[in-house]
Amino acid sequence: MTVIPHLLSPDEMAHADRLTVESGVPILQLMETAGNAVATAVIDQFGWGRPVSVLAGPGNNGGDAFVAARLLRERGCDVEIFAGTTDRYTGAAAASAQAWGSDVRLLRDFRTGPDTLIVDGLFGAGLSRPVDGEFARTVEIANASRAPILAIDIPSGIDGNTGEIRGAAMRAALTVTFFRPKPGHLLLPGRAHCGEIRIADIGISSDVLARIEPTTFANEPALWHARLLAPSDTHHKYDRGHTVVLSGGASHGGAARLSAMAALRGGAGLVTVASPASGLLVNATHLDAIMLKRCDEEGDLRALAEDRRLNAYVLGPGFGVGEKARASAGVILKAGRALVLDADGLTSFQDVQRALFEREGAGPLVLTPHDGEFARLFPDLAGLPSKLDRARLASRRADAIVVLKGGDTVIAAPDGRAAINENGSPALATAGTGDVLTGLIAAQLANGVPAFEAACAAVWIHACAASGFGTGLIAEDLPRLVPRVLATLHQER
Length: 493
Ligand SMILES: NC(=O)C1=CN([C@@H]2O[C@H](COP(=O)(O)OP(=O)(O)OC[C@H]3O[C@@H](n4cnc5c(N)ncnc54)[C@H](O)[C@@H]3O)[C@@H](O)[C@H]2O)[C@H](O)CC1
Ligand SMILES: [K+]
What we know:
Blueprint: E1 6-7, H1 10-22, H2 27-46, E2 52-56, H3 60-74, E3 79-83, H4 91-100, E4 105-106, E5 117-121, H5 133-145, E6 149-152, E7 174-178, H6 183-186, H7 190-194, E8 196-200, H8 208-212, E9 216-219, E10 242-246, H9 254-265, E11 270-275, H10 277-286, E12 291-294, H11 298-305, E13 312-315, H12 323-334, E14 338-341, H13 343-347, H14 353-357, E15 365-367, H15 371-377, H16 387-398, E16 401-404, E17 410-412, E18 418-421, H17 433-446, H18 451-466, H19 478-491
The structure holds ligand LP7C6HRI and potassium ion (K).
Protein name: Bifunctional NAD(P)H-hydrate repair enzyme
EC number: 4.2.1.136, 5.1.99.6
Binding site for (6S)-NADPHX: 60-64, 124-130, 153, 255, 318, 370, 435
């Protein structure tokens, strides 16, 4: 059975917690199971040999820390626990603190060295303001010690909703979280502070998800795999759809060619580059399996857009900024065709966003901005602290799928769904990889995959193709790495 890769906001996690308690599981049992998962991870990962310093904050994350400390001591570890000067535990955390039953040292006395293992139970889902004072000092000492840090639930100081650092944040080697990951585990910089992430089952039934109805997901194949067009013996190329990429002039066709090649390798049955007369010769020299069509006037494009055999269009890479791009996008959208708008195509609407957002025609639209392009199109949203909010609000406003790119690309749909990509590769930080992504999205659209799933699949495939590479991988290399990724995906069906 496919497990949907849900992510839960801290509020949704608290809801899951409440529903579980209402169903008869005591909160103390949840805390005991959480603390046990932490103690088990300490021993699995780091063995018995190291002294363990457990840091307990004022809430239930601290409660988990007390349970873990007690269970580690019972299993023969050398454990000390440190807590704040003013901490007054309540509820399950008070019971767990009491069950520890030994000395509690003060955080202000916390010192450590690289041979210790630090268990970070300062703050979890309840972080409500920036970490400061003695807590910030504790974080700084822990990070500077070079001792490995195991974070309970999330590294203290990372916001579970946004992945932001609030004040100061632990840099963990391992994070043990409960039931489902949170957006802050996948969004940067949070992701970089988590180290390896383990998800522990603490006895919350997945049945609660039907009540919570989460709309945020990790961008994993389970989210879209079933929607992909599977290879079939009976398919001919027309069943796989036809992608059209609009090219710039003679010296600006490279980006469109990268996109076109990615569309073909990404599984479109046919791909055409629509080129102005000035670009025909250069494009013809570089293209073989990809067809070429002259497209100078708006009338040429209208004829293309009205041809129902052509399924998905790419406009933007190397196209040039201005009226021609706006008019071309208008023609494609008015004809109800699927469009991926990128680069110059996005920038062309920077002073006339409404012309794009309040468009005629109901064809699917996918916008693929990086942060700079996003700020030009959505200046009032660009400063919002949450990348999920930025992408979601923009998607709703534009009534389009928004792919907000970066090391933690977020894909958002107007119906509120959003996916955070988690297989991003630093190898993609090089010129032209965005053009390749537009082609991969258009290939999925041409295959008939719904726009949100098409964008999610393409983002994942793009990153997977680059995995294992570092600097030196260039955009031209990427399309030929895609078929292997597709083969693996289809084998897993
Ligand atoms: N959700 C579950 O099923 C379970 C979660 N567990 C663990 O509980 C924490 C969440 O607990 P909560 O008490 O809500 O939050 P915290 O422990 O993170 O801390 C809240 C506490 O801290 C104060 N506070 C917040 N920010 C600051 C700050 N910057 N400086 C000082 N003080 C701050 C706030 O006022 C509260 O008093 C979850 O992460 C899990 O680890 C359960 O153990 C099991 C079930
Ligand atoms: K923590």
